Amino acid sequence: MRAIARTLFGKILLWSVSVQLVTVGTLLALATFYLPESQEAVDNAFSLYADTAVALYERFGNEALDKFLARSGDTTLLQLTLSATDPGTACGPRTPESASIVARGQTGSYCLTVHAKNGGLPESPESRRSRMQITVLLQLVSSAGLSYVIARYLSRPISDLRQAATRLAKGDLTARVGAKFAGRHDEAADLVREFDQMADRVAALIEVQRRLVGDVSHEIKSPLARLNMALGLARRDAEAHAPRQFQRMQREIDNVSQLVRELLTLASLDAGAAKTVSEPIDLGELIADLLANIAYEAPDRAADLRFRPPGDTITVCGDRALLGRAIENVLRNAVFYTAPQDAIEVTCAPDGNDRALITIRDQGPGVPDHALARLFDPFYRVDDARTRQTGGSGIGLAICRRAIEVHDGRVAAHNIAPHGLAIVMDLPRLAEHTDQTHISIQHHNRVG
What we know:
- With 448 residues, this protein is an alpha+beta fold.
- It has ten helices and ten strands.
- The protein has helices at residues 2-5, 8-60, 62-76, 125-169, 187-238, 243-270, 283-297, 320-337, 384-390, 396-406; strands at residues 78-85, 98-104, 109-116, 279-282, 305-308, 315-318, 344-351, 355-361, 410-415, 421-428.
- Strands 5-7-8-10-9 form a five-stranded mixed sheet. A three-stranded antiparallel sheet has the order 1-3-2, with helices on one face.
């Protein structure tokens, strides 16, 4: 209830209902205070009328009384009768058709009775009060319903706009709202249409960027291949004259080739065109294989890699090669920034019944807190000078995020005390009863 009250819909509804309650409450208070006074005035007038009728009867007789009662009945649409009664005896009870009052004269007591000529008499105070309470209740119900409709009408564009903005922020470039409010012409609808125009522009710019990265990467592949071939021929004939220079050229060509491959992979993942297979993957086994490969390539760091495998098998659905590349990029990054003899801890554990968490903790320098949110952006460098010295391209972690998102997962980073960085990958687990023939990967166009 508190969460609803914080929304624009809840605030509009609350204020609208409050205004209606104050209005109805004011009317009810006025009726409560003034109705008894009004009824008392009517009763006093009725008593005075009865005393007048008795005085006429006792002084001038029946003829004067009949004229008085007949004239009064013609003007009030009532039939009035005056009859003698014993002292101390009450008149008949009030009914919807008649009402009586006792009047005392000089010679005796009399009962003045009022009969309605057409229909019933005016309601009693109790009856009118009950009817008023029912009316107030109906008014409150109708006010609440009307307030809900108004609040929903006013807040719906903002609510839908917020949902679309959230989807766009997560990388869904198809998020639009305007079609739902095509028939509305107010400030909220104008805001929705302007949001759609902005989203169209952003999607177009990102598509151009993706296409540019992909096209440039493809165009560079062929010259690199020819350059690599020419370098190989040159090394065969003249490497003895300048071996260090040839090694440096080969290393730079290899770096550029690796960069091009990463750019092509990133562009393919961004466009949702990456060729993936769908199969059950044992996360514990996959991580163990990746750590074994790294230990084989760098045997001096094998003792630093500490893996705590899960107690039970944790299975996810996806592309083993793509998911392995995502995890491997994080592992190699941790190895690079962690000094020898410092541990790199890797854990894989279930998170509830339907998620799996892979956590990789290094003991490197960490990153500034303001850089954590952008750590997985393409080409983002925390320290440009240091990254150029280490040869990093700023694409490995971006590929990691894209690959995890392709598997409907999430990845995040946070610093750990006293120093180090922890990267957590959250993936959906594959239920044991899932039919393996119907496994599929969800593809999303996402933007970092």
